[in-house]
């Protein structure tokens, strides 16, 4: 084994995160850092070299696996064993929820403790409906947290085209590109084109303003990484047809599908929404192990009763969720969801949100007068001169 091969294999061992120390005397001595939150146990078996005992912390076979004649350790075999069959401990992310009060939206900063690479999920752009003013206070608080923690943002991810708040994805992407070595891609599910086409036509948006604005379109169940963290994009239709959840370690960021246990689930009356599909998506989430944390996209705490809660475990949802606890059938769910949706008012920022979000957070182009315009439909009551 040449030096290049040794280094390559050692790098793989580091990614395995399987032991606190790899001793390959007399050739290589390397310490591995494992976060304290990830305890592990690995049996050590000695092998002989030059009359001394050195712990081979990677092999669980007899000492002959690491021994050549004349007492020389067989480095290549030990490394091969360590890379392929060592016990591994998956690394869990550090998660920073940021709650935006006006729209009741949770946005998340999710980082890999091993590399400080991180992702931002569902960021919010502030919009005042009365003055028609866009500000970046909430997004800037996320940027401050990124700088405070020393993170490098490698992805910005949307669960869907939101209808209740404006996304800050484009703003964050542009600002981050000024301060780190590359521009993080903005990702969303592959079905976003259907939503863009529908609302592009409805609001008269030119196709050139929304086509190709997302840098990454996730396939169903596509696996990807954030640093050394393994993640998966899960298609969770129901609230909208393009809706995704992101599973990262023992966490799933479910967007607008499952809410807190005392609220239940998200509405399904948007174009392409389906209570049947949402029930199946929710059951897919709740089939995960009980300890998995479900990080919600929104929370609307009853006044004074509790603080916003970013996550509840699978087990707790199965016991307590008012729409989805064990024993609720699909027919029961569809009935109660339909009755609930029938009386819900439209989201306060419905039209403004959709027009910005199908553009991935970009604002409308300026017209000849230098104005950026969002269209809001007029409701006319009565049959008078109109």
From TrEMBL:
Matches recorded under Pfam families: Lactamase_B
UniProt keyword Ion transport present: no
All copies of domain Metallo-beta-lactamase, residue ranges: 104-298
Keywords, sorted A to Z: Metal-binding
Gene3D superfamilies noted in UniProt: Ribonuclease Z/Hydroxyacylglutathione hydrolase-like (3.60.15.10)
GO MF annotation terms: metal ion binding; sulfur dioxygenase activity
Protein name: Beta-lactamase-like protein
CDD domains registered for this protein in UniProt: POD-like_MBL-fold
Species of origin: Apiosordaria backusii
Claim: Metal-binding is one of the keywords in the record: yes
GO terms (BP aspect): glutathione metabolic process; hydrogen sulfide metabolic process
InterPro entries, alphabetized: Metallo-B-lactamas (IPR001279), Mito_Persulfide_Diox (IPR051682), POD-like_MBL-fold (IPR044528), RibonucZ/Hydroxyglut_hydro (IPR036866)
């Amino acid at each position: 084994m040449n030096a290049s091969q040794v280094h390559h294999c050692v790098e793989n061992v580091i990614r395995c995160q399987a032991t606190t120390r790899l001793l390959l005397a007399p050739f290589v001595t390397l310490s591995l850092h494992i976060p304290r939150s990830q305890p592990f146990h690995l049996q050590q078996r000695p092998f002989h070299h030059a009359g001394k005992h050195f712990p081979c912390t990677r092999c669980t076979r007899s000492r002959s696996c690491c021994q050549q004649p004349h007492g020389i350790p067989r480095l290549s075999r030990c490394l091969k064993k360590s890379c392929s069959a060592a016990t591994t401990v998956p690394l869990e992310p550090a998660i920073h929820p940021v709650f935006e009060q006006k729209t009741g939206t949770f946005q998340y900063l999710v980082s890999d403790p091993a590399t400080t690479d991180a992702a931002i999920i569902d960021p919010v752009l502030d919009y005042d409906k009365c003055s028609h003013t866009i500000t970046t206070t909430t997004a800037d608080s996320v940027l401050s947290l990124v700088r405070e923690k020393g993170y490098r943002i490698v992805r910005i991810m949307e669960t869907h085209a939101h209808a209740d708040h404006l996304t800050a994805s484009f703003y964050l992407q542009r600002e981050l590109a000024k301060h780190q070595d590359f521009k993080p891609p903005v990702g969303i599910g592959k079905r976003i084109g259907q939503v863009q086409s529908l609302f592009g036509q409805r609001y008269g948006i030119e196709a050139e303003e929304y086509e190709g604005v997302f840098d990454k379109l996730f396939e169903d169940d596509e696996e990807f990484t954030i640093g050394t963290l393994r993640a998966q994009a899960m298609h969770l239709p129901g609230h909208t047809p393009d809706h995704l959840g992101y599973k990262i370690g023992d966490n799933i960021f479910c967007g607008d599908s499952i809410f807190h246990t005392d609220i239940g689930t998200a509405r399904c009356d948007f174009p392409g929404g389906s209570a049947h599909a949402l029930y199946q998506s929710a059951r897919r989430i709740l089939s995960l192990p009980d300890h998995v944390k479900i990080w919600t996209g929104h929370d609307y705490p009853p006044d004074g009763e509790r603080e916003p809660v970013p996550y509840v475990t699978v087990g707790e949802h199965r016991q307590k969720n008012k729409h989805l606890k064990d024993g609720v059938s699909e027919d029961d769910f569809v009935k109660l969801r339909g009755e609930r949706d029938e009386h819900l008012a439209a989201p306060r920022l419905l039209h403004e949100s959709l027009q910005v979000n199908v553009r991935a957070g970009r604002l409308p182009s300026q017209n000849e007068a230098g104005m950026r315009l969002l269209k809001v439909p007029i409701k006319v009551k009565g049959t008078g001169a109109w």
